[in-house]
Specification:
Mean pLDDT: 78
Strand order of the largest sheet: 1-2-3-4
Strand content: 5-15%
Number of helices: 14
Radius of gyration: 32 Å
Number of strands: 6
Helix content: 25-40%
Structural class: alpha+beta
Length: 349
């Protein structure tokens, strides 16, 4: 009874769940709340499960989102059949490399080390667990779900609470966390996060150890210390090493290409300005007309309906340049509106 008094009644809270959802939407504009009720789960029927079966299902099959698997969990499943520190290091090496050529090379090493483990791992699509196959949509190279694990560990206290009490616990926890993040950001003076700044500064330290060859069209060939070659495309914000593509932070090769461009008299901007996704629309000049279905009056010449002269309309007409009697005899009746004529002299004249 004490627990029920403190946390609320389980059954009653399910009865007012829809009212709780409506309250969230009314107090937090833009909030999306979805309540889905399944009285006869098909999966339970397929597996012949009942209310006393001790099974928990976690689904991450979001078809519209990029799916990734935690590499640590992938290895945990593998080591049930294939164990060894050397094998573990080989698997992590396969996941960590960014370049597809290097990925194929380390996968061959894994095959020589343990053919059965290689066959087991090859059955899992590499795009779910290997950086070299990530699409770059998420702009993160994370291989684990540590963020989810940390979040789940904070919710242990709320798991046995009634549904609304549990949801309120999650909402308050996330609110506090967001506020704490904002406090940290307010103290930071840089334009990037601490992590992004550290990565970028480390990438800048090797720029004098590489050779750059401009290939035209914002493309550069960059040769490293060990004579490995990469192609940087500043226009596409990409490098064949794929670190820039996956993380959104300019890699060593990209920074070298930027410095070369600036040294040759071209505007490029600091590497910090290249972090993140590119702008979808280019910045227009102040005197450049926008491409829109609505015609702008900025470059149009207005013809007055009174005196039929250009440069003003009927409302501001003072008879300049022609007789105001031009309106007479036009057949306009009382109550009708005069439509002003707009000509396109700049475009068609």
């Amino acid at each position: 009874m004490t627990k029920q008094f403190v946390y609320g009644d389980y059954e009653k809270q399910y009865g007012i769940l829809r009212e709780y959802a409506m309250e969230l939407q009314s107090k937090n504009l833009g909030t999306t709340v979805k309540i889905d009720v399944e009285t006869e789960p098909k999966l339970c029927d397929d597996l012949d499960l009942n209310s006393s079966s001790n099974f928990t299902f976690i689904s991450d099959q979001q078809r519209r989102a990029e799916q990734r698997f935690c590499l640590r969990h992938v290895y945990d499943n593998m080591k049930l059949k294939h164990k060894g520190n050397e094998l573990r290091e080989a698997i992590w090496c396969c996941g960590k490399v960014y370049n597809l050529t290097k990925f194929n090379r380390v996968m061959e090493k894994l095959k020589k080390l343990n053919p059965e483990a290689h066959e087991w791992l090859s059955k899992i699509l590499a795009k779910h667990w290997a950086r070299s196959r990530f699409s770059g949509r998420a702009l993160t190279d994370s291989l684990t779900n540590n963020l989810c694990e940390v979040f789940n560990s904070k919710l242990d206290e709320a798991r046995d609470m009634p549904i609304i009490t549990c949801l309120e616990f999650i909402r308050e926890y996330l609110t506090k966390r967001i506020v704490n993040v904002h406090k940290v950001l307010e103290k930071y003076k840089g334009s990037l996060s601490t992590t992004a700044t550290t990565i970028l500064e480390n990438n800048k330290t090797v720029e004098n150890k590489m050779r750059v060859l401009f290939s035209g069209a914002d493309k550069y060939q960059v040769t490293g210390l060990w004579m490995e070659q990469y192609v940087v495309n500043l226009k596409e914000r990409s490098c064949t090493c794929r670190k820039w593509d996956i993380t959104g932070i300019p890699c060593q090769h990209a920074i070298v290409a930027m410095y070369d461009k600036m040294q040759n008299g071209s505007e490029c901007g600091d590497p910090e300005a290249w972090v993140g996704r590119p702008k979808k629309k280019r910045k227009r000049a102040t005197d450049e007309p926008t491409q829109s279905t609505n015609l702008s009056r900025k470059y149009l010449t207005v013809t007055c309906s009174k005196c039929h002269n250009k440069g003003h309309n009927a409302r501001t007409c003072k008879g300049q340049g022609g007789p105001s009697e031009a309106r007479k005899g036009s057949g306009q009746k009382k109550g009708e509106y005069v439509v002003e004529t707009i000509t396109f002299d700049r475009y068609f004249g």
